[in-house]
Amino acid sequence: MTAAAAFPARANAQRHPALAEMPTVIPDLIAELTGEAGGGPIRREDALDLLRRHLGRIQSTVQDGFEAHELSGLAAARWLAALSDGLMTAIHHYALAMVPARGAVEMNEPPFALVATGGYGRGVLAPYSDIDLLFLTDQSAGPRAQRVVEFVLYLLWDLGLKVGHATRSIRDCMDESAKDATILTALVDARFLAGEKPVFERFAEVFTRTRQQRGLGPFLAAKRTERAGRHARYGDSPYLVEPNIKEGRGGLRDLQTLYWLARYAFGTQRMPDLVGPDSPGGGLLSEHEARAIRRSWDFLWTVRFHLHYVAGRAEDRLTFDFQPVVGARMGYTPRGRQDGVERFMKHLFLTVRDVLRLTRVLEPAIERAALGPPATRRHGDAALAEAGLAFADGKLVAAPPNRDFSREPVLMLRILKAARDRKLEIHPLAIRALIRNAHHAAAIRGTEEANTLFLDLLTGRDAATWLRLMNETGFLSRFIPDWARIVGLMQFDTYHVYTVDEHTIEAIGVLQQVERGDLTEAAPVATELVGQLQSRRALYVATLLHDIAKGRGGDHSELGARIATELGPKIGLTPEETETVSWLVLHHLLVSQTAFKRDIEDPKTILDIADLVQSPERLRLLLVLTVCDMRAVGPKVWNGWKATLLREVYWRVAEVLAGGLSVPERDVRVARARDAAAAMLAGWPDTDRDKFLSLGYPGYWLSFDAETHARHAALIREAEATKAPLTVRTRVLESRAVTEITVYAADHPGLFSRIAGALAVAGASIVDARIHTLTNGMALDTFWVQDAMGGAFDAPHRLARLAVLIEQSLSGRLRLRDEIRKVRREPARLRAVTVPPRVVFDNHASNTHTVIEVNGRDRPGLLHDVTAAISDQGLQIASAHITTYGVRAVDVFYVKDVFGLKVENDRKLGALRVAMEAALAPPGEGGGAVLPAPRAAAERA
Hints:
This protein has 941 residues and is an alpha+beta fold.
């Protein structure tokens, strides 16, 4: 077979002159290596130099053609394989010339063939792929053959090539392939390269007979098992934001599996061979599906080639640092409000979805064509028959011959409901029909039966399973057109693990976990409240639509609320339900933003939410929706501390809605807190107790419970008795997954910043902080910290070191700037994610403080730099609320000026903004505030 015949898609490569001039088999190279003109083969060292130069020309020529956009990824992969064939042929000839036969026995050794297997056997190679070779013999390899094999392998290794290899006889191949599916798969791809072609032809005949005798069943089962294990290893979701384009679900390996199955069953070489009534199986693919396979194959190969060239190695995981580079190389530029990298990744995820669909379309068709049609049972179940459904192989299908999805689209929803209610499987051929007929879902939008069935599936058992199937088949995008805009949509950040559509389905799954009581320990309040809801259906629809407007620009909550208002009646919601859904979508971030960005001890914070919510039912709905949304973002987002903050917000707002807290009662609440603390100190002398009760300002008494006040009293009493200049206490709170650190020291400017710096050096991440200056001029600061994994900072030796670092920092003996630089930096793959710095001032969120919200890229020492900048401006920090979303830090500070007033002067705010933006800049770009020297009894900062 000629190279052109073997690789018909190479026609477009002729645009690259160097490739057009480079033959795939190179007689001149062979002649030079073997010394055909006389003089014998050249020395091995000279041969290596010659082969290295030729290999370099192959690699550079293909790379130049690819990067000049003269070759697509698939064409480049085929050219690289074809040109490598010439190299391998030349090496084979040279090896035979360099390893002559020794005596008559070796002269009569059985001949062998050099065979390409694996990806190389399929005729495609990535720039840094292994070259898989089989040294194939009629019988066991003789001494000379073994020496030739060894010579070839050492030569390839010295050329820097990675080689997978095996030496087997034809019988060995059959025996080993019966025991190992990996070997069997490699043989399916086997392609003759050089040597004795009759040996390979005999192998092909034997292998064809063996495949026919064994049948497709065992091979199909083995490939399905292998695929399931691979998906579990590389991420079972196809919509992970850092996908493995080769091994992940919907990647190249899944497409290759389809090729293997078709080739094993029918001996086909190309997917278009399965198109048309005269093709094997009678036309398993439509023209449209064959083109989709080709597009997906070419796109994924193009991404893989770029990824290998950018990484300079065999890299198949498309991590954050590679995504912008590969996207730009492929020509994806910003469009509207969408970044080029987000457009690129959406195309990738849509391609992945196409691969999943094509797998569901082709695999069952191959199985049926090879194993025979299923036995369909049309009678015996009146209810199913009435619904237009039947059984095939014990699984659900549309009842033939008159009921099908194209003529009766509502059958697509009926079969899902029947499968759920009866706990039955849907036949793969029925899923194939779902995919092929998904576009007919548009015909049943707004119909009463379709709406009833859809809402039943959305709110019923295993809803996430059925939504995921509707999404992957394309039904959901046709039934709800707005859904199509979030399919495959990713946000280029390190916070969200899934695409928007997959995150939404995950949220539905979490909601069902809450209802089942599976999250009683992790989310006890949500679990308790979900059973009290009166608007269950509205909650499910709101969860489905909460991110429906992402990627459109503007506030996705506001846009989503408008979409919900329009969509609600169309899918069968009542006006009341529609209003509730729209309100929930509009405010679905309210509780989380309040919990993580606002001081919930400030009465205005709670009263503002209460004014907005107004209804206990809506508050319950918001809390449950918030829990589901957060837990669906990714496995590392939820923790005990965040759960605690959400619970605190819920109970405080619920208290207001029940007629509790109001601003005039603040003094009463302070008095009650002081009385409770006094009761906890009942055994103390009156003078000691009264002295402690005189230390705190109102904000202090409202920030902690009576038990904490009592612990603070004991700490202060001990510090004053021993005249300790600094006291540090730590307490691990397992239920909240945090460690509480209390620092009692003389107040001075920069105290908060220096403590924050010491915590950064210790490897502790601050998640919340309360800063209090007492009437005696001492500071009582409380920090809640976690380790790098989001758990409590609880190792005893680390806690001991932490206290030492705080003392060294406050005494000036610790060079914070130098030590912070030594803290381990983030992985390189995350540095591509940019976070524009942003500083927002709010003088309305609190009646007593100016609220500063800071957005910036998280890094070791960021909080130290930002708080130092605030301190330098002469401001007092009353509380800090620290939240991290991937690499994005969102820190909120409640501050006053030196007179205890809000900061409302524009000039002062302008200077503060400049200082904080400088602190947000990365080190070396103007970032990093200058620390003030410690001064005892100075202004608080």
